[in-house]
Recover the amino acids of this structure.
């Protein structure tokens, strides 16, 4: 009986509360938005600015075309 009670409590905690799940989803969404914004910002840089950061125009286009899950 004591073992069943112990495991029942840990199962509920491992799933997390709705608030925790929502917070994690919001953080992932914000991270996706930042990645998307910075990748598209590369396309707006001049060739000289791209050289300063060590990229070519084709590398910037390739980076901007990556999906969020690419990393």
């Amino acid at each position: 009986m004591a073992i069943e009670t112990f495991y029942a409590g840990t199962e509920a905690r491992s799933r997390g509360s709705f608030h925790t799940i929502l917070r994690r989803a919001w953080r992932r969404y914000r991270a996706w938005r930042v990645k998307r914004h910075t990748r598209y910002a590369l396309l707006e840089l001049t060739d000289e600015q791209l050289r300063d950061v060590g990229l070519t125009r084709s590398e910037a286009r390739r980076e901007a075309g990556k999906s969020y899950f690419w990393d």
